[in-house]
Amino acid sequence: MTAATAHLLLVDDDASLLRLLSMRLESRGYRVTTAGSGRDALSAIQTERPDLVLSDLRMDEMDGMALFHEVQRRHPGLPVIILTAHGSIPDAVSATQKGVFSFLTKPIDKDELFTAVSEALKQTPNVGQDDLTWREAIVTRSAQMEQLLDQAKMVAGSDVSVLITGPSGSGKELMANAIHRASGRAHQPFIAINCGALPEQLLESELFGHAKGAFTGASHAHDGLFQAANGGTLFLDEIGDMPLALQVKLLRVLQERQVRPLGSTRSVPIDVRIISATHRDLAQGMQNGDFREDLYYRLNVVNLRLPSLAERAEDIPLLAKHLVKQIATRHQSSVNGFSPEALSLLTGYEWPGNVRQLVNVVEQCVALSTSPIISQGLVSQALASDESVLPSFNEARAGFERSYLIKVLKMTDGNVTQAARIAGRNRTDFYKLLAKHDLEAARFKVASDAEPPRQSNA
């Protein structure tokens, strides 16, 4: 990561020191955001995730170590450097043992500062690099998704097994494919199978292969997906639905790194990276006796939990616009966007079916639209086609409010007076709305300077 692409968050309750350190770091080409307290820092990270946090140790309400622990809990992998005028060797040792990347004592030597920042950025995933083709299938501006993609890029470099969890339709196969494309196996096969979509005997044959005559209808030998994926990645979707008998055989294959086709006496060596996914609670499955504990720990070396679409609501307008262009191109349609009212309706919806449901709704709207702009009525019709998944009135209103506030704050670069005027509210009411949805206007003041969101498909 270069200075030109790195974003630093500087946290200190001393305004003069913030200015001094900001100027030093900006002179080296870094983009710097400042926060005067730990809570402001957490809000800033939620709005636009930085690549590195530099925090003062002694601050009122939330000190640097408390901030570090909260960052570590909410954003694993985000490095933190602690700055203090009260430094000591025991403090430094204690902090670094807990995971703080570095511990610098005030007055800060600029060369030591630049060296520490440079070294910390080497440890972070190369989010700022130009080659983002590995993740081009994922469209997001969500800090939560960016954090997951950081972790995906880090884990891609090794061959450890990954278990992707999250609700149905949240994009688990897309994430698995992204990990494969970021790995050293990228030029080898990526093969996916849904373990819950086939009956047991057919699933066994598909995974492990079979010899000629292994069962009625087996007129020729079949290699199976483990052999087909040799050298690459095998994605086992809905692994929680795999029958127990096949779980035993899968565990043996993973332990021995060889597969014996059904009806064969010969085992075949395999070199396959396993990524699995489920929307089920496998811990509960183990308690119920439906899922083997030894297989669970073999598959769940690294766990990545994908959020629901409602949890990344800021991505809904971005995804909807991207999908319209993609679907319209595929169907040679003249549709090119949504009316503001239609987009607001999409943004305020809870999306129980997640991204998959959004794709279906946009597909229907593009197919039925008689004008280049999709109307609110068409969106309402598409959503009403499944009344059982409609959100409650309060849920829909809350979702719309938060998305609307984010939109007007981005439009006005965090200017509350202008944003309140657009919203038709007085400043006091507008500030109450911001507090209700845990939004800080100051965090949007740099939005116009930020890089445009990376576009890929989710």
TrEMBL record:
Show where the Sigma-54 factor interaction domain sits.
138-367
Mark the residues carrying the PTM 4-aspartylphosphate.
Answer: 56
Q: Response regulatory domain: from which residue to which, for each copy?
A: 7-121
Q: Does the keyword Repressor apply?
A: no
Instruction: Name the NCBIfam families for this protein.
Output: PRK15115.1
Query: Looking at the record's lineage, which domain of life comes first?
Result: Bacteria
Descriptive protein name: Two-component system response regulator GlrR
**Record keywords:** ATP-binding, DNA-binding, Nucleotide-binding, Phosphoprotein, Transcription, Transcription regulation
The answer to keyword Glycosyltransferase applying to this record is no
